[in-house]
Write a structure and sequence with these properties.
Alpha-Beta Plaits, 4 strands, 111 residues, 22% helix, alpha+beta, elongated, 42% strand, 2 helices
């Protein structure tokens, strides 16, 4: 099993979510996070110039069987490219999964 983690801009979320659903990957977790960027921006806030170094991002997490990982990466990339193509995708190993309600373990717990 693998966990696919994508960090994207908030405006990309609807397109990425739609692409994942179209790829038959209907379960995901999305959360708002802050992240740095290579260059800071100067912005005016109430007449005072501020240097912004943390930016809004959305972190999407999907736990999948190994067979669906490439499909998920393609779907996330496709959705993100529709709205600018910014972001990163990471793939992490998942050693076990448990469905609390039923007690099902392993790959069956994530399908």
């Amino acid at each position: 099993m693998k966990m696919v983690v994508a960090l994207i801009r908030p405006e990309q979320l609807p397109a990425v979510k739609r692409a994942l659903f179209d790829a038959q990957i209907p379960r995901l977790t999305a959360m708002n996070v802050l992240g740095t960027a290579p260059m800071a921006e100067q912005q005016m806030f109430r007449g005072i110039e501020k240097r912004v170094t943390l930016f809004q991002r959305v972190r999407i997490e999907v736990v999948l069987t190994d067979a669906l990982v490439e499909k998920a990466i393609e779907a996330i990339s496709k959705g993100a490219m529709e709205t600018g193509g910014h972001g990163r995708i990471y793939v992490l190993d998942v050693h076990d999964a448990v469905t609390i309600w039923t007690g099902v373990r392993g790959p069956k717990a994530v399908s």
